[in-house]
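ok so I'm stuck.
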Amino acid sequence: MDNGEERAPELRTLRQKVEYMVEKTFPGRKISGRVFADLVKERGGSLSHSYFSNILAGKVTQPSEDILKALGLGFGVDWRFFKEESEVVDDVVAGLQFLAKRRTGEISGLAGRGLNEDGLPPELLQFALALLKDAEDRQPPAGGGPRGQ
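replied:
not stuck anymore, here's the structure
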């Protein structure tokens, strides 16, 4: 770009995201899998050095959520950064749908036990929305006539 701004890189794959974070988190250094695994361990997570190396080699493309959380710990970022774009979009849409239903009163309260700082997991949001949809489908229409007319 002409104005000296850095262009945002294309970060579609897990490998691209991890390489980008290595470059930004450890500028000018080549970080080994062992060093990164030790860093994750110091921060309370678990990640093997060989698994990290396989991510950088592009051999791992769909790791578990626990691995993504370990990457987030190691780099000091929200683990959802490493999720596939479609998964993040689905999470955001589910969250927005949930908030909209809460705002309109379709959901009046929710009690969660054992929640962490991330709040409700996306799977629970999807489940709650599915329950609401089922309840809506079972209710008779407002005019008393058959549905769909």
